[in-house]
Amino acid sequence: MAKPVLSAPTGARQHATLWENVLRHFKDAVIVLDTESTVVFVNQAAEELTRTPRAKALGYPCDHLFPDSLFLSEMVLRACNLRQSETRNEETLRTRRKALQVRITCVPLFDEYGDIDGAALVVQDLSHQKALEETARRNESLARLGTLVAGLAHEVRNPLAGIKGAAQLLAQRLPDDPFLREYTDVISNETDRLSTLVGDLLQLGAPPKPSLVPVNIHEVMQRVLTLVGPEVRDAGFSIQCEFDPSLPELMADSGQLQQVFLNLIKNALDAMNGASDSAGHLSIHTKMETDYHILRGAQRAQSYLRVEINDSGPGIDPDILSHIFEPFYTTKARGTGLGLAIAQRIISDHNGMIRAFPAEPHGTKMWVSLPIRKAS
Ligand SMILES: Nc1ncnc2c1ncn2[C@@H]1O[C@H](COP(=O)(O)OP(=O)(O)O)[C@@H](O)[C@H]1O
Ligand SMILES: [Mg+2]
Q1: Separation of 302 CA from ligand 2 center, angstroms?
Q2: Atom of ligand 1 minimally distant from the CA of 267
Q3: Domain 130-371, CATH 3.30.565.10 — does that match?
Q4: Whole-number average pLDDT of the chain
Q5: Residue 37 CB–ligand 1 contact under 6 Å
Q6: Architecture of the structural domain at 11-125
Q7: What is the pLDDT of residues 58-74, one digit of tens each?
Q8: Most C-beta atoms within 10 A of its C-beta, which of 1, 199, 312, 331?
Q9: Domain ranges for the chain
């Protein structure tokens, strides 16, 4: 039988309508291309992944959705020429918005006569998995170091309390000599500083298990803002908060979360204090996490909220960025390098993620993603 000449809609387009219902709720992004690499179908996950609505995707060439991803056109070409599907387990795919780590499969499509009719791309976003893996990896090295550190901190805590008590007694008994008083003050202040350090070390090495209760993230943020308020005002910095009131509750330890956000905001204030050029501006946003639309396995059903803290400081040097969550890593003269390590530990104990990025045009973005409470 002679093959009829197809007029539009082509075979791939007909397939697309047939698949649409099946694929609409598919969690992986699916993009169907005709033989000219023109997009003829995208499912909802693909619209979210590329941040491109269907109307702006259909009829456009594939590289409109994924600019500078040459390997993709090569995959499509190979799939069509060799009539075989191909999977790449780890690729960097550029959307118009950003680069994503993905697993990608390209499947050739055939019409009813066995001729090549186009190709389908199935894309899994691995960023969520990567961020979780990275957080877990950091946590493992923390846990190893933590046991040693906590043991040491326990040993130091008691003598420290003894020194502090003795200094106070000495101060009471000393004649009112400002010269001697200065020395007892130094002992007292420095033991206070060491006690804080020992407390941080214990928190890092032997952290109390979070006691999880329903928590409203905005109440936590308000408490933190009250604590840092005077410092922000004294420095003349401005703060802008955009809180999404529709966010659901978290199951969390609110005291521990408070400490995380306090550490992050204190770092932001330190950074802005160090920047001489412009007046410091801090912005804090809360929103539903939309980065992870394609979650895998058990995480499929889990949604996250995100707290973003952006400062207008000098930003973090790319060489430094990969170290900032390491315990004892500090670039400050009187820093301990424990703030972010503790924050990372707490967020990981809450099954969340913490990430740092450069902000535009300068400054730092810290993102904390936390699982929200599932509706029962
Ligand atoms: N918002 C920020 N802007 C610039 N650098 C930052 C910021 N937050 C953290 N850092 C960098 O990360 C390092 C580690 O931070 P942290 O663990 O809190 O320890 P510390 O504040 O004691 O130095 C800091 O010394 C700094 O170099
Ligand atoms: Mg800090």
Answers
A1: 30
A2: 8
A3: yes
A4: 86
A5: no
A6: 2-Layer Sandwich (3.30)
A7: 999 998 899 888 888 88
A8: 312
A9: 11-125, 130-371
